[in-house]
């Protein structure tokens, strides 16, 4: 695709694409070069009012449309995403940094998400409850909650918006979505596919700007009935407080700090390979990335050696380079965060197995890093690094390692490796996380719930739970 040009970002309000014009703009930077690639229009208060009005006016007709017809639009949009996957992948890599194969796969996965929710919308069943009163029919109905405000991050700029849009639109809700300003193009490609697939005007609106201003304005509006947010725990708590003022339904998919428990009977080479791929995908900028590796003392060094060999073979470079296996960090802020955490860990006694420094002085490239025997006093053992850093500790006792895995206030994802079936069952019961992979690393799919517990949030995206988050339950007793 030598003729590729990054598309000009626009606002999408009421079914109309709006260029920057006289609006303020924010530069969009290529993380591989640090150079600006576009100017992103900032929505004015008038734009936000127009989006709210469009979502409100289009809701009655959209909710009244049959699930079959809503599904047809989502299926058409999914087909367009597959046709455009190569282009969308290039857009995403240019603005976010991950390697092209990952970005292209993300576009295809978004199509799968649209297809799955299209079908699941046709199964949003209510029920009839037998009544103790003769002649009375007790109906339980499922209805769309109403217009939704959705907020999405920069790490998966295609699939995370797709999960929110697929479920909300399938349920019959209208949506105003504010994607991350660092990565606007990916979500705009979703909007373009939906628009081209025949989505009625006003059902979807896409805005950008100063995140705090937009979220506070939208959430305060009586038009908005549901909030869906993916991002940090700190911001999620703030948005939850705003939502509480209007008693608005919310889904919060927040931060994590995933533990990995590897026992002495595990297949070490398989576990190391599986976890290395998972850890350094998207340069470690994944909320479910395995990070805290608790390794049985008898296999610690062997696991680190196997894991390290894979890490040493990673090729860091521009995501558009077909030889690269890991791209840059998405923004320059992450470089400072990586350095501070790694330096702190080494100062407190951790051993640097590999990596640990920035690569070059252009772009946001960081060496894949492995730190061993990291004490709990190190910041990286307590704060999600959200980057290409893996840390290890040793253990000998199952009860103590489970307590260590559960020590933090987060509970998004966790992983464990063992050949003992009884132990696997005990780990599934006792580890505090919304998602657990046992001898397996893939925790995402359109058909499965995705979400955490404790300070990692509440509610789920994906699965029937994801659809249910955009529905309300109405009970009707009729004589």
Verbal overview:
With 479 residues, the protein is α/β, with parallel strands linked by helices. Helices cover 38% and strands 21% of the residues. Strand 12, helix 9 and strand 13 form a beta-alpha-beta unit. 53% of the residues are buried. The protein starts with 10 loop residues before the first strand and ends with a strand. The chain has 2 domains: 11-254 and 456-478, Aldehyde Dehydrogenase, Chain A, domain 1, CATH 3.40.605; 258-445, Aldehyde Dehydrogenase, Chain A, domain 2. The model has no long low-confidence stretch (mean pLDDT 97). The protein has a 7-stranded mixed sheet with strand order 14-15-16-13-12-18-19, with helices on both faces. A 6-stranded mixed sheet has the order 9-8-7-10-11-21, with helices on both faces. A 3-stranded antiparallel sheet has the order 5-6-22, with no helix packed on it. The protein has helices at 45-64, 67-83, 85-96, 100-120, 159-171, 184-196, 211-220, 233-245, 268-280, 300-312, 333-347, 398-405, 421-430, 463-468, and strands at residues 11-13, 16-18, 25-29, 36-41, 127-129, 137-144, 148-151, 175-178, 204-206, 226-230, 249-253, 258-262, 290-296, 351-354, 369-372, 389-395, 410-411, 413-417, 435-438, 453-454, 457-458, 471-478. The chain contains 14 helices and 22 strands.
């Amino acid at each position: 695709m030598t003729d590729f040009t990054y598309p000009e970002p626009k606002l999408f309000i009421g079914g109309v694409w709006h260029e920057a014009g006289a609006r303020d703009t924010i530069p969009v930077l290529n993380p591989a070069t640090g150079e600006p690639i576009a100017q992103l229009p900032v929505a004015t208060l008038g734009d936000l009012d127009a989006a709210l009005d469009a979502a409100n006016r289009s809701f009655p007709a959209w909710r009244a449309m049959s699930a079959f017809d809503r599904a047809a639009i989502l299926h058409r949009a999914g087909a367009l995403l597959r046709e455009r996957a190569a282009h969308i992948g290039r857009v995403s890599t240019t603005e976010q940094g991950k390697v092209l194969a990952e970005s292209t796969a993300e576009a295809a996965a978004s199509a799968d998400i649209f297809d799955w929710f299209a079908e699941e919308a046709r199964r949003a069943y209510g029920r009839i409850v037998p009544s103790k009163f003769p002649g009375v029919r007790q109906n339980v109905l499922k209805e769309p909650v109403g217009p939704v405000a959705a907020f999405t991050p920069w790490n998966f700029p295609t699939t995370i918006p797709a999960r929110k849009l697929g479920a909300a639109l399938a349920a019959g809700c209208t949506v105003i979505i504010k994607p991350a300003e660092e990565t606007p193009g990916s979500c705009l490609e979703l909007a373009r596919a939906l628009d081209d697939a025949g989505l009625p005007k006003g059902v979807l609106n896409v805005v950008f700007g100063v995140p705090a201003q937009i979220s506070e304005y939208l959430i305060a509006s009586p038009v908005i009935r549901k909030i869906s947010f993916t991002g940090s725990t700190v911001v999620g708590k703030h948005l939850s407080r705003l939502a509480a003022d209007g008693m608005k339904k919310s889904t919060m998919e927040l931060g994590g700090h995933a533990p990995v428990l590897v026992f002495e009977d595990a297949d070490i080479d398989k576990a190391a390979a599986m976890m290395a791929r998972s850890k350094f995908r998207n340069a470690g900028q994944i909320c479910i990335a395995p990070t805290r590796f608790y390794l049985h003392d008898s296999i610690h060094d062997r696991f680190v050696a196997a894991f390290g060999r894979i890490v040493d073979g990673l090729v860091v470079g521009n995501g558009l380079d077909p030889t690269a296996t890991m791209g840059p960090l998405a923004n320059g802020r992450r470089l400072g965060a990586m350095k501070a955490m790694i330096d702190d860990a080494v100062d407190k006694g951790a051993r640097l197995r590999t990596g640990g420094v920035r690569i070059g002085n252009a772009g946001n490239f960081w060496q894949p890093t492995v730190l061993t025997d990291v004490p709990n006093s190190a910041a990286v053992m307590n704060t999600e690094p959200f980057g290409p850093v893996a840390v290890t500790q040793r253990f000998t006792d199952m009860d103590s390692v489970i307590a260590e895995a559960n020590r933090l206030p987060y509970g998004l994802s966790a992983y464990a490796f063992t050949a003992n079936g009884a132990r696997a069952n005990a780990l599934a019961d006792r580890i505090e996380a919304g998602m657990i992979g046992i001898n397996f690393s893939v925790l995402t799919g359109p058909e499965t719930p995705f979400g955490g517990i404790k300070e990692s949030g509440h509610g789920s995206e994906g699965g029937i739970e994801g659809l249910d988050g955009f529905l309300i339950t109405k009970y009707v007793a009729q004589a």
